[in-house]
Amino acid sequence: MNKTPVVEHRTVEEARRDILTAFQRLPAERIALHEALGRVLAEDIRAPHDVPPFRNSAMDGYAVQAADVQHATPDQPVFLRVVATIAAGGTPTRPLRAGEAMRIMTGAPVPEGADAVVRFEETSDTWAPEERPPEQVAILNPVRPGDNVREAGEDVRQGTVVLPAGTRLTPAGLGVLASLGFPEVPCVRQPRVGILATGDELVQPGEPLAPGKIRNSNEYVNAALVRRAGGIPVPLGIARDTVEALTGKVHEALALGVDMLITSAGVSVGDYDFVKHVLAAEGEMHFWQVSIKPGKPLAFGLLRAPDGRSVPLLGLPGNPVAAYVAFEVFARPAIRKMAGLTPILRPTIKARLQEDVRNSGRRHYMRARVWRDAESGELRVSTKGDSLRVQGSGILSALVWANAFAIIPETTAHVPAGTWIEVELLDVPEHALPLIDPTVAQYEA
C-alpha cells in the first residue's frame, strides 16, 4: 500500500477556488423542445423570421378603414358593406376599399387597405337578428388606425437575439422557441455525476439492519442534490472497505463516462479509510482539512480515465450532515458550472440572530430557519429546532427543518443574540434572487 498521502489545510475560499478551476462548462448537445425545460442554452438564438410573421387581428370583429368610421356613434352608426370573411389560417382574396368591411377572426391576416379592427361588441352584431342590415354592418364607435391590429414583428423582429446563450429555458422561453419554428435547441450537456458510498457498515434501504450496520442515506441524499443542482446522478452503490472493492468501483465509474465522481466517507484519518490510498493510486489527488464545520476532511483531485480524460473527484465526509454541507459548499457550484447554470453560488442575506451562538475556530454552517417577523418586517434566523442536538453532524433530520445555513465566521468565537449575521438561503429559485438581494455577489471562476 502507498504511504499515507499528505493532508493539507485549506480555508473554505481556497478549497472552493482550487476545486472550481478544474471544471469547465460542458459542450453542447441538441435537445428536443419538449425535453428542454430547465436546460441552459449553449448558443444565442436568433429569430429566423418575425413573430407574428404577418399583420393580424387581435380581436374577432370587422377589418375597416379607420377614416370611414371616425364619426360613428351608437345613435348615428356608420354602415359598411361586408365583402368577405377571413378566418384564422385563411388569407384575404383582395384589398379592402373605402366603405367596405371584412368580417375577421382573431389571428387572421388583416387585409391590405384595412388599418383597424372593430370588435363585434361595437357593431350591429349585438342587435337582434331581425334588426341587422343585410350584407352590411353598422359600426357603433370610432376606432383609430392600429386599433386591435398586431403588426408583423410586434413580438420578435427577424434577426434579433431573442434568447442569449446561458439562458435557462422556462415554459415561456420554450413557447418563444416554438413560435420561431425550432423543434430542438442547442443546450449545455448535463453533467453525469457518479455517486459512491463507502464503508463496511452500510446497508441499502430494504435490507435487514444487522447489529453494527447503518442505512446508506448518503447515496440518496447526494443523488438528489446532484439532480437539484442540474446534473444527472449515476448511483454506483456501496464500495466495501478494501482496496480491491474501491478500485473496482472507481473503474466502473470511469467506464460509465461520468463527468465527476463524488464519494462519501473514507477521507478522514481512521484505520479503515482506504479511499485516500486508492484515489492516490488512480490519479492526482489532494487531501485537505478545510476550516469548515461540519465537514473538515475533504479530498479533491483528477482521476485518469481509460480514454485519456481527467475526471474530477470530490471526496466528502461520511457523516450525513457533514456530507450535505460539503456538497452544498463545494460540489453544487462545480456541477452548476459544468451545466452552465448561474449563479453558481447560493444567495446570502443578512438576518437577525435569535439566540447566542458559540463557535470553535472553523467556519460554521449551522442549520437554521429564516423567516420575516410580522411586526417589524425584519428577517430573523434561529439555529434552534425541536432537538437540543439539532446541530450535530449526524442529525440529518435537522436539514428537513432548515431552510438556510447561518454562517458563523472562523474568526468569531461568540455571536450574541440580536446580531445581524450572514445567512445562505437554500432552495431559492433563480428568478427570485433579485427580489431577495439584487446586489448579491457571486463567485466567478
Automatic annotation (TrEMBL):
Its EC number is 2.10.1.1. GO terms for cellular component: cytosol. Keywords: Magnesium, Metal-binding, Molybdenum, Molybdenum cofactor biosynthesis, Transferase. Its cofactor is Mg(2+). It catalyses: adenylyl-molybdopterin + molybdate = Mo-molybdopterin + AMP + H(+). GO terms for molecular function: metal ion binding; molybdopterin molybdotransferase activity. SUPFAM superfamilies: MoeA C-terminal domain-like, MoeA N-terminal region -like, Molybdenum cofactor biosynthesis proteins. Pfam families: MoCF_biosynth, MoeA_C, MoeA_N. It is an enzyme of class 2 (transferase). Pathway: Cofactor biosynthesis; molybdopterin biosynthesis. GO terms for biological process: Mo-molybdopterin cofactor biosynthetic process. Catalyzes the insertion of molybdate into adenylated molybdopterin with the concomitant release of AMP. This is Molybdopterin molybdenumtransferase.
